[in-house]
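Q: Got a minute? One more chain.
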Amino acid sequence: MNAVLDFTFSIPGYNLVEQLYCGSRTIVYRGIRELDGQPVVIKLLKREYPTFNELLQFRNQYSIANNLEIPGIVRFLCLEPYRNSYALVMEDFGGVSLKLYAQDQLLSITEILEIALQLADILHGLYCHRVIHKDIKPANILIHPHTKQVKVIDFSIASLLPKETTEIKSINGLEGTLSYLSPEQTGRMNRGIDYRSDFYSLGVTLYELLTGELPFESNEPMELVHCHIAKLPNQLGEKREEIPEVLSDIVMKLMAKNPEDRYQSALGLKFDLENCLVQLQQTGKIDHFIIGQRDLCDRFIIPEKLYGRENEVEQLLAAFERVTNPPISPLSKGGDRGVELMLVAGFSGIGKTAVVNEVHKPIVRKQGYFIKGKFDQFNRSIPLSAFVQAFRNLVEQILTQSDAQIAQWKDKILGELGENAQVIIEVIPALEIIIGKQAGIPELSGTAAQNRFNLILTKFIQIFASQEHPLVIFLDDLQWADATSLKFLQLLMNQTSLGYLLLIGAYRDNEVSLAHPLILVLDEVRKAGAKINAITLQPLSHLKLNHLVADTLACLEEVAFPLSQLVYQKTKGNPFFSTQFLKALHQEGLIEFSLESGCWQCDIAQINQQALTEDVVEFMTWQLQKLPESTQFVLQLAACIGNKFDLKTLAIICQLSEVETAAALWKPLQEGLILPQSEVYKFYQESESRIEDSQEQRNSPDFSLLSSDSCCYKFLHDRVQQAAYSLIPDDQKQATHLKIGQLLLQNTKAAEQEQNLFEIVNQLNIGKSLILERSQQIQLAKLNLKAGQKARIATAYTAALEYSTTGICLLNLGEEDSCWQTQYDLTLPLYELATETAYLSGNFQQMEQFADIVLQQAKTAIDKMKVYAVKIQAEMAQAKKLQAVKIGLEALELVGASIPESPDSSDTQQAITETTNNLNGKNIEDLINLPLMTDIEKLAAARILNSIGTATYQAAPEIFPLVICKLVNLSINYGNSLFSSYGYACYSILLNEKFQDIDLAYQSSKLALKLAENFNIPDMKASAFMVAGCSTIFGKAHLRETLPILWESYQSAVESGNLEFVGYAALTKYQNSYLVGNELSVLQEEIATISDVLTQLKQENILYILGIYQQSVLNLLNPSGEPSSFRGEICDEKTCLQLLNHASDRTALFQFYFNKMILCYVFCEYQNACQNALLAQAYLDAIQGTIFVLVFNFYDSLAHLAIYSSVPSEQESILNRVANNQQKIQLWASHAPMNFLHKFYLVEAERERVQGNKAKAIEFYDRAIKEAHENDYIQEEAIANELAAKFYLDWGKERIAQDYLIAAYYGYAHWGAKAKVADLEQHYPQLLTTILQQSARGYTPNETVYANESRFISQTSSSGNSGSVSTALDLSAILKASQKLSSEIQLDKLLSALLEIVTATAGADKCVLMLLNQNQLSIEGVAQVGQPAVVLQSILLSESKDVPVSLVNTVKRSLKTTAIVNTMEHPLLLTEAYILRQQPKSLLCTPILHQGKLLGVLYLENNLTTGAFTHERVELLNLLCTQAAISLENAKLYQQAQQAIQDLQQAQLQIVQSEKMSALGNLVAGVAHEMNNPLGFIAASLKQAKPTLADIVEHLKLYQENLPNPADKIIDHAEEIDLDYSLADLPKMIDSMTIACDRLKNISTSLRTFSRADRDYKVRFNIHEGLDSTILILKHRLKGNEQRPAIEVTINYGNLPQVECFPGQLNQVFMNILANAIDALEEANHGRSFEEIKANPNQITITTSVVDKNVKIAIADNGQGMSESVKEKIFDHLFTTKGVGKGTGLGLAIAHQIVVEKHGGTLDVNSTPGEGTEFTIFIPIHEQTKS
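A: Always. Here it is, folded:
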């Protein structure tokens, strides 16, 4: 289409005539060349400032097409520089695009064949010139409208390589046009692109030309890609009938998914097209023939199919499916949460990468991301290299997306990473393009930095791994992975927050031993429960290799056998070696294509004479040595860089220009030994005339942009790289690496050095022994320091240690110790880095050695502080807290902040006094405004004080006040620092403990929180929030308010990587949750979850204490013989005590005895409670200033008052002890009554009780209960109620005691303390009678409970006690469940409720309910977590895949419950298909019985854990099943009753209808009878009147004859009455009246016939009489009216015998059918005029006949007919198509019943919409009827 000329474009030397095309990227003009007047077409880039890639593609089409002498290619005249771009000048042969040409017309098949033949010639020409066009489509094909000459244009993405490999890319990054793209061009087919890709695009083009449609049409790009890969297009004949089948076959062959199945040559295609055209021209048609008979290819192509890897590919695809469709919500480890590690092992060249790439295909369907990285043999010291490559690849994919999509990613990334996004940018700089420049991040020390990095990188991965787009990360060559990468791999697999992630790791199993770091890490991952699967690839068998050779040579397998045998002997079935070997034979001319025979030939004898090595590296070396010397030299240096290398770097180290270097690489590019990684290589593929690095080329528009897009390559395989590297003599390798490093260093700009630092330093380090000049040694040491610091930031501590030790070695090449004198500023940071990274790498001995040197050589105390800080961290990491304190004190003395190692009370008092004086006259909240601390020495002291704060608190509490006071004093005197918030928070502890100044302590905590918020450094925030939440907030606010503060601390600690405070914050949060009375079962789950996290973080010390609390909770939850003893799986007191005493962990020891004291008291073991209180008291100094002191005082008082009466000698001391405790609690109660007042009152009540003051005791009990209730301390409210009950019980007031004890019972129950509830039931059954009896009545009779218990015990090894049943009732929960089940009466609702309750109660992931029907189980309900329940599907057990059938059958027959702890170890299930497929962890299958009869089976499974269904759970389910059985039985009865009611209602309706018909019959019979009497009289009278009238007339005539002249009066009267007319008409009137009487008589007869009453037996009846009577009754409806003419009734009666039947009922059938026919005709008349109806009149046709011993009555109408859906329901009860009040839906249903059930006949309907309906009745004729 021509357009208005845009005059903004003017090109010197050309006159623009018209605009031909204007697209998003280019503009095309028609013009005239001024020089010679030649018509031209000029193509321009639209953008004023085009990108490099746009310029590259623009130049590429000229550089390729300009050298093609092919008639079907548009001739390029020149490429003119124009503005910032080019003008591409082409010949103008008058063509238009084929897209426009065919747009408005469907081309004839002849014309299309002529076009296709020209295109086949063009593709053959491209094939001969080894060009792949890659964008064949109608828009790139020009056709001359008159001559029909065809030419191809646009070579912008064409390639000169015989084959291109393509990586998986974002849709926006794909080259080509999506609708015409070949499957391999999508990058998702695991194969390269060759000339056959253009055949596919040609096939799509021909499909579109022939049918006018594309084979695949979609607006969704990924859907199009999926179609090209996996879907077949519709046959062409379905789109256009006249397309011959053979032509359709040709197009479909072109569009085959695999290139091997397409045409292999354009000449073969041309032969078939010519055959079609000749037939069409000669005969006008195309007969079918076998296509492809001349399709021979003379190019040596080895198929890229995978041979012998079908099973391995299937395993990999199954792993991808498991990850993308996890069986449950991804919350647990391993595959269950959608995370899996798939290992692919095998020798080098065995095909690991090819197998892995097969996962590309399903990724398209799931719209996921596939990214990959490769560890390099020669760059093992670069940390996280493969991960970084993979994530750079991911960022590159994102950068190809639209601006809107990138904006969305930016929001997601920043939303998830927040201020820590810079951590990822440090590793992946390209991310900054997406999210913008980010603020710097605070430097963290030690493990905190590593933890932060791991956390942020994990979050980064989590953003991209989702259900919408799963993530696959492929890590190649894991055997060369660095330690940091292996650790991160382990972290990913153990990270519970991740899902939808498949990690694939490939490694050479012959290069790793059992002690290899990779194997050790994989073992750890397996132990942690993560899901790992492995595939080991074996060499190809001779059979599979023979298949490959046969496919390559396009011959029969038996023909290929001798050659494949030779290849197998040489390569041992190694796929890479085999393919390279075959290529070499072809290159050597030992395999040749014979044009005469049209096949490949080889001389086996000649091949055997070749001295070919059996070593793949030697073989590849031999291949490389055939290349030019210049190419070998370039490849040697490329191999030194790594598996991947860029042209710019390679040019530097080769000391050549980039153009010369690229020229040297062109030959291995063509041979496929190296592969381009982008399209930039095309910039260098021009002819030799332009290869020179001319000034003209350097001035071209795209040359200036080239630096921004580096040209990258990679070796085809590691073996190729190794072969290239082996070309360097061993004695020259070090020198080569050194030279490479030096050249890179000299030629890399300072700004780029940082980015390439590892690569430069690694090269120099390999050759470091050759560096002799001191200055160069020092320079390299500096570079190693930079590299080490960069590696440390990336948390690659092992690599950082290696760099730092290398730097130290370089410095120590001089004289001993001289570096400390001559290079102090370099030596100190190197040793500091080495010290820190040795500690972070876990090498404590090496750390000590480096640290000792620093402490000896450092010039100043400040210079030693970093090392001291590392030593403190190392000791803390090893749980040597006292040693950490000692080191800290040593460091403090050096910076003038000394603290005595063994302070006495005066030292403590002095420190506190100094701080008090410093604060004198200051408001503590004003300290927020202090200036920042700048004194370096004071900052160093503050850092050390901060680092030993926790250690002194826990292990040296006497030093703790001095440390904190010193830290606060530094802040007051020198300004606030990062460490001040921790100091203020800890100072609040001292204020509480030493001064009991609760208000000031609270202010100090608030100051700490505010300052931490202001600095907003997560590390400092974590410590300050933790201390404040632990120590002082409770002094003025409810303890519950500390929970969010502690959670904030936890999250900040996680964010900063401060694992120490991650543990402390989590521990304190759940300690406070326990003390505040949170529900125990919920608390247990939360503690278990956080314990998993802390286990991953290896927080063993914290886990000991948290385990004590978890065991306490479990003791309260689960009744046992010794509820106050720690003898559980979480905590064993004997082992635990040994560990805690050995570690001298005073805090943990206090918590141990503190928790024992509480349990002993709760379970009334008062003497033991007192003993544990005394033991805990010895460690009170370890928890000073915390709420634990006051809670200890509370329980200590209660325990001692409980034994008061039994120890007369100690009573005074007990009262004194209690008074002392009360004094402290009272103080706190005055500030925080919400936490302490009820405690104070309860102890007071107990004190008054033991002293006999009953009145005061009563008052204090009630006050304590009231306060505890109002402040939600549910457990202490229960304790107060229990103590009050005991008080009244001892007093003899049992009734009052009962009220308090019941309150206590429910208090403990609401707390979730089942063990305590059972304890109360056991000790006070007489006071709990109302509850216990109600429980028994409310659920089930005792014998039923025992029956279920016995079934359980018979299958398991559990045992119970007398309280187990009441425990399993689960109190209110079971009551609610029972009530809900018993309240449901409708089966579907009951099933849904039952499934919901059972799933929730049992802790199951899946629940299946089966019901018994006719002795067969059928599945009636399935519930799964996160999905709605599905009920009443009625699937037979034998046909189900939802349950293990064998297990269910066992339970069905045995009627016994089966609980399976671990399905993988149970012998019954080893071969069960369901178990092998789904792999659940735990199973439970239980029968549902009612009065000993099996009603159904309940199946449950848990996919998270083994042993999920405990004894208590089973008991609970048995009780639920008992209630469920009753409810199910009731529901079934209800369902039966409902069905009976429905049947009754239908019967009633039928009776009513029958009664109505009977009444109608009686009425009609009565009317007929009444009509007969007068009718008979009238008929008889008329009969007599007619002759009488004739006589009178005759007599009158006589008068007229005898009186010829009558009087005028007579004459006048005769005229007046018209006598003559009357005499003539009167007989006619009599006749008419007689006829009317006859008609009335017939009607009466018809009425009596229709309404005849049926007897209880059949009688003979004339069917025709019944039909006639019915028509007569309906005659009034058949008559015409003003809306329509009369309905015509056509009768075709056959010769029928009388039939034995019930006549009245048959008449009813005829009435219903005929009335419906009239209704249908009237409905069909709607919208039609009278004349239209008259032209096509309404008709009813009645036909009778005898057919096969049956009377057939057919009643048809020509109405509008009925649809299939209506036909299916037409005889259903209550179904009607008529409006409300117009039909009952019973007529035809009753008619059907009369014919079928009463008469043994059939009633059928046949209807066609728009044509009419016919009802056919068949009534059997009995023998006696015939006779």
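A: The radius of gyration is 49 Å.
Q: Perfect, thanks.
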